């Protein structure tokens, strides 16, 4: 490999909006030496995404696809904007399309990365699709990464996670902004603007999609109001389900108690506004925002769908079943309020021990991206048949 040129990597994503996978990638991208490694991004979205301008400021390209199922178009984009040393796909089962195209284009390193434990359908057609795409992923990828054990099993199957090229990859997070004392003063300003006063604030950060279970969160809120009529719910994020949730808030008369903050760049401040973080997801690959919440010392009440890798073992994670009545959740929330972790050294040590630091992720990815081979395609394919 010519060492005078930076290693060139193509990241394949749905769109670079503010979500867990995308934030993890930006944490890495901000931290790498751009003289040694450079990222371009394939986006499946025709719209501008939240991180696009920042990516361009670092010299990265945003490459749009008109047909996300076209291997031919993907090969063309790789050849047009390459050559690439590695293609790193983050698009669930569609990773098979991207990595097959990369294989045809002669890209040596082809990574499929698992970020979730489920999706929205279990129809027969969907099951057939998953089986075919999983086989495609295993045959075209030189490396398989997963943010949690559950995510790895879901995307790669039992055979995939037993492969020698499969490995657990902790999500990269720059936790230092969440430890800053400045967040407290900014949080007070925001709470004043929202009219929170000294009221109890329960929070959630995440896209408005069915998997995040906002409707259940509203049921919990109704139960909390029986205990404290002044409690507030702070919702940060955007998404396809937001309009539905807004209508539900109006329907049940919670307009004075629920604040929709939209997409925010000051997540550390948003977390400091909260007294407890509630995360009743139906499924999650990991839940990067839970790492951010723990970095802020925030007590978190989460569903059993949350992967064990997300728990930093700081005593901040409390799991509840979604089968339990929302009142049980409300009771548990009231129990943990006021029990923030204020020992920042302890928090820092937990992140380092769990290998969630950005520096660790960058070192591992640099090793993968810079590899000259992952075994021949023929031998790798033979191992998977």
Automatic annotation (TrEMBL):
Query: Known Pfam families for this protein?
Result: Glyco_transf_4, Glycos_transf_1
Tell me which residues make up the Glycosyltransferase subfamily 4-like N-terminal domain: 20-174
Superkingdom of source? Bacteria
Gene3D superfamilies associated with the record: Glycogen Phosphorylase B
InterPro entries given in the database record = Glyco_trans_1, Glyco_trans_4-like_N, Glycosyltransferase_grp1
The residues covered by the Glycosyl transferase family domain are 198-306
PANTHER family, per the entry: SULFOQUINOVOSYL TRANSFERASE SQD2
Q: What is this protein called?
A: Glycosyltransferase family 1 protein
Organism in which the protein naturally occurs: Jeotgalibacillus marinus
**Taxonomic path:** Bacteria, Bacillati, Bacillota, Bacilli, Bacillales
């Amino acid at each position: 490999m010519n060492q005078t040129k930076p290693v060139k990597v193509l990241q394949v994503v749905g769109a670079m909006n503010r979500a867990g996978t995308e934030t993890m990638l930006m944490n890495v991208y901000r931290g790498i030496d751009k003289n040694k490694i450079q990222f371009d991004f394939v986006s499946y979205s025709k719209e501008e995404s939240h991180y696009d301008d920042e990516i361009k400021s670092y010299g990265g390209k945003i490459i749009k696809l008109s047909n996300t199922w076209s291997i031919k178009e993907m090969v063309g984009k790789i050849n047009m904007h390459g050559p690439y040393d590695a293609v790193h796909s983050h698009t669930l089962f569609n990773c098979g399309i991207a990595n097959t195209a990369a294989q045809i284009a002669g890209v040596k390193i082809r990574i499929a990365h698992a970020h979730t434990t489920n999706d929205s359908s279990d129809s027969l057609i969907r099951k057939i699709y998953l089986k075919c795409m999983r086989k495609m992923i295993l045959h075209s990828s030189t490396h398989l990464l997963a943010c949690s054990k559950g995510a790895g099993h879901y995307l790669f199957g039992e055979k995939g996670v037993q492969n020698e090229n499969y490995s657990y990859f902790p999500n990269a997070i720059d936790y230092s902004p969440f430890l800053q004392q400045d967040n407290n003063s900014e949080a007070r300003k925001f709470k004043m603007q929202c009219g929170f006063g000294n009221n109890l604030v329960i929070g959630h950060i995440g896209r408005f999609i069915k998997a995040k279970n906002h409707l259940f969160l509203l049921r919990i809120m109704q139960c909390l109001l029986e205990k404290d009529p002044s409690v507030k719910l702070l919702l940060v994020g955007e998404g396809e389900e937001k309009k539905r949730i807004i209508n539900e808030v109006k329907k049940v008369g919670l307009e004075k108690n629920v604040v929709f903050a939209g997409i925010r760049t000051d997540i550390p401040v948003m977390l400091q506004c909260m007294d407890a973080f509630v995360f009743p997801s139906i499924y999650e690959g990991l839940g990067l925002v839970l790492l951010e919440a723990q970095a802020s010392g925030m007590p978190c009440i989460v569903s059993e769908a949350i992967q064990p890798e997300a728990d930093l073992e700081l005593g901040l994670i409390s799991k509840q079943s979604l089968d339990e009545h929302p009142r049980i959740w409300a009771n548990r929330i009231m129990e943990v309020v006021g029990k923030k972790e204020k020992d920042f050294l302890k928090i820092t040590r937990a992140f380092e021990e769990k290998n969630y630091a950005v520096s660790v992720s960058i070192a591992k990815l640099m090793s993968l991206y810079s590899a000259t081979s992952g075994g021949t395609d023929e031998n790798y394919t033979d191992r998977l048949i």
